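Protocol step 4 of 5: obtain the predicted structure for the target chain.
Materials: sequence only (see below). No template structures provided, no constraints applied. The aim of this step is simply to have a reference model before the mutagenesis design in step 5. Sequence pasted as it appears in the construct record:
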Amino acid sequence: MSEIRSNQLALVRQDSPLPTVEVDLDSAQESDSTFDDILADEMKVYAAKNTTVTATLYYYYTSSINFGEPTNSVFIGLAGPERCLKVILSAMKGTRGIRARFSDYISPYNAAAMIHIEAGKVYRAEDPMTWYTTDTKSTPAETQVASGDTKLEPTDDRESEPEPDAAGGSARGSVPSRYRRARADATVGTIRKTMEEIFGLPEGSVALCGPDGNPLRATAKIATLRKRWE
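Step 4 output (structure tokens):
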């Protein structure tokens, strides 16, 4: 992995609304990979074949009813050649279980730049100022925790005793005693949601904060959280 500052990239910025592909994040949880890992891998193939293309992808997370029912969705906005949007949709719809569609335009001012294509390479945002590129996928030894699609896994077979619920039965599952580290490119929002699900906490009750006590935004990376505490 090699890092690069945002001012070293020709990030595509525009004032006009961005066309989008919408992904149902609830459906993406059934995939073996995170939606942004799938997207980044597909963009690597696209970038290698289109070395003159420069494009930036923006993420906007919100609730939606565009799939005919309430969903938690991410709108992937494109600042770049329109044909790239078709590649994005194909990558998402080509993954088993993931629901995706061309969707509403979004304001670039409400979205975060997350993936950038330039000179045949793909860059991913660690935070607004720091980007990274890598030609290798995550190894099996890394924890597969990212955008809501996988669970934290115990590092050994020891588990704590399940706590009884109010009716005297067992609470949902048992809580493993220890967990592997969350991946650096996992988002803060994903880890918050995963912690709430595993420990049976109310939605919104978990906050991942910096040393100043302020919670990080949902799209920030776990690597950013770690750096602030170093």
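Step 4 remarks: Residues 2-133 form one domain. The beta strands are 2-5, 18-24, 55-64, 71-79, 100-106, 112-118, 121-127, 130-133.
Proceed to step 5.
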